[in-house]
Design goal:
This protein is an alpha+beta fold. The protein is built from eight helices and ten strands. The protein folds into three domains: 7-103, Phosphatidylinositol 3-kinase Catalytic Subunit, Chain A, domain 1 (Ubiquitin-like (UB roll)); 123-215, no CATH class; 224-329, no CATH class. Strands 1, 2, 3, 4, 5 and 6 form a six-stranded mixed beta sheet that branches. Strands 7-8-9-10 form a four-stranded mixed beta sheet, with helices on one face.
């Protein structure tokens, strides 16, 4: 069959994530359509397609013939998973079977996914992004977010990344950033070929680490603090004090501090320009000097020690909640 007609597709990745795709002409075959979707959405895994068949009250059916697909349609990506099987002839074989779901949710996968699924943000932010994406499609304009809107995006992305990997590589965070600007092109960085920059990566790491105590339901307010001017003395046994410009720091996360003071035994012992670097140094000092972890954040520092830095010597027993989180991330 000749390729004819514009094809408008709503590509369903999972129940919370879809992509809009407009093709200038209908591909010649289902496989050609799959190849086109792979190319447009940068998929590297194999999959088949289902579509809402109007002949059966829009119930999902496997797409076998390209002619069956309406000009405006929703197609569902069903990922093919490779499973190792042993054949009866004792030779190892690989059998491809369809997964029962689409792309596995981040909570249930134990490795970094081929395609990072951007999580939903707050109602306000989702509304702003919808309008921003429409404006971007029309005239290429990017949007300017408020501080709280940026914080919601960074915090939500950080939590989603943390579900996949406690300490992701720069490449993995870059993949997450690419997925974000692909889904919401209005967030693209000006004068950037990739649509994002390294500041996004730093902010995501900061949000992930600063958000860990909240995830563990521990109070870090007495340890992670902010100030608006330089300090020479700070009354605290252990603390990170970020020198910031803002009147308020979203969620208490200092994304752009002038400097960060490391406080031990009421004295500033070191300073850093990066909050995450300061946190690493603080942990190193606590560990090297055999100091006790702050009582309200014991789990947070134990998690850094045992899971992130693997300094447990296989002797330290994690509390059940930390062990559960470790198992989810391994």
């Amino acid at each position: 069959m000749e390729a004819t007609g514009i094809l408008k597709l709503r590509v369903i990745l999972d129940k919370d994530n879809t992509e809009k795709l407009i093709l200038p002409s209908r591909p010649n075959s289902v496989q050609a359509l799959i190849d086109e979707i792979k190319s447009r959405l940068n998929f590297t895994f194999d999959f088949r397609l289902q579509f809402h068949d109007p002949d059966f009250d829009n119930a999902l059916c496997n797409l076998v013939k390209i002619e069956d697909l309406p000009a405006i349609a929703s197609v569902k990506v069903v990922r093919l998973v490779e499973l190792d099987q042993i054949s009866t002839s004792t030779d190892d074989t690989i059998l491809q079977t369809d997964s029962t779901d689409t792309i596995d949710s981040p909570e249930r996968i134990s490795r970094w996914p081929e395609v990072f699924i951007v999580p939903p943000f707050s109602y306000e932010v989702e509304h702003v992004l919808r309008e921003g994406n429409a404006a971007f499609d029309k005239d290429g304009k990017v949007i300017i977010l408020t501080r709280d809107q940026k914080h919601n995006i960074l915090e939500t992305m950080g939590e989603e990344i943390y579900k996949l990997k406690a300490y992701p590589s720069t490449t993995q965070i870059g993949k997450a950033a690419e997925a974000l600007v692909r889904k919401h092109p209005c967030l693209k960085e000006r004068n950037s070929d990739s649509g994002w920059d390294k500041n996004d990566i730093y902010a995501t790491r900061t949000a992930a680490l600063a958000g860990l105590p909240m995830y563990l339901k521990q109070d870090s307010s007495e340890i992670f603090k902010t100030c608006k001017e330089e300090i020479e003395f700070y009354e605290a046994t252990i603390a990170l004090v970020a020198d910031v410009d803002e009147e308020e720091v979203p969620g208490g996360v200092p994304f752009s501090p002038r400097q960060v003071f490391i406080v031990l035994e009421d004295q500033v012992v070191m300073t850093h320009h990066s909050w995450t670097d300061a946190l690493v140094c603080l942990f190193g000092l606590i560990y090297a000097l055999h100091l006790s972890y702050p009582e309200k954040c014991t789990g947070f520092f134990e998690f850094i020690q045992v899971v992130l830095l693997k300094l447990d010597d296989e002797r330290k027993q994690l509390k059940p909640k930390l062990q559960t989180l470790k198992n989810e991330l391994v």
